[in-house]
């Protein structure tokens, strides 16, 4: 007999993607009046199929391009969890908040 607590969704064997957690926190902190982030489906195993996201061969986010998307709100501190993120473009939006210091791998940052 299988205990009810051990029943898990099919994707439960896959470790939760910290990049997805960070992007979900970002999305939750933003107002998106044009619905540009609708492809960000958190039921997927990783965010590599989402629009405006580029991943490396390990399915880790290396690029986030959200320029000129009419977004507003606060920048999620969880973005600092994205240890492979190299390019972050958020310019021409109304996003506020400090840029997480943990974004040490960033080669290109466009915020304003």
Automatic annotation (TrEMBL):
<dbReference type="Pfam" id="PF00560">
    <property type="entry name" value="LRR_1"/>
</dbReference>
<dbReference type="Pfam" id="PF08263">
    <property type="entry name" value="LRRNT_2"/>
</dbReference>
<keyword id="KW-1133">Transmembrane helix</keyword>
<keyword id="KW-0677">Repeat</keyword>
<feature type="domain" description="Leucine-rich repeat-containing N-terminal plant-type">
    <location>
        <begin position="17"/>
        <end position="56"/>
    </location>
</feature>
<keyword id="KW-0472">Membrane</keyword>
<protein>
    <recommendedName>
        <fullName>Leucine-rich repeat-containing N-terminal plant-type domain-containing protein</fullName>
    </recommendedName>
</protein>
<dbReference type="GO" id="GO:0016020">
    <property type="term" value="C:membrane"/>
</dbReference>
<keyword id="KW-0732">Signal</keyword>
<dbReference type="InterPro" id="IPR001611">
    <property type="entry name" value="Leu-rich_rpt"/>
</dbReference>
<keyword id="KW-0812">Transmembrane</keyword>
<dbReference type="InterPro" id="IPR032675">
    <property type="entry name" value="LRR_dom_sf"/>
</dbReference>
<keyword id="KW-0433">Leucine-rich repeat</keyword>
<dbReference type="InterPro" id="IPR013210">
    <property type="entry name" value="LRR_N_plant-typ"/>
</dbReference>
């Amino acid at each position: 007999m299988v205990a009810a607590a051990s029943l898990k969704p099919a994707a439960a064997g896959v470790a939760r993607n910290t990049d997805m957690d960070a992007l979900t926190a970002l999305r939750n902190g933003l107002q998106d009046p044009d619905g540009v982030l609708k492809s960000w489906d958190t039921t997927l195993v990783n965010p590599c199929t989402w629009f405006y996201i580029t991943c490396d061969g390990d399915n880790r986010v290396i690029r986030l391009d959200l320029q000129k998307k009419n977004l507003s709100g606060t920048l999620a501190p969880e973005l600092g969890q994205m240890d492979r993120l190299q390019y972050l473009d958020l310019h021409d939006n109304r996003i506020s908040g400090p840029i997480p210091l943990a974004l040490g791998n960033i080669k290109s940052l466009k915020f304003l």
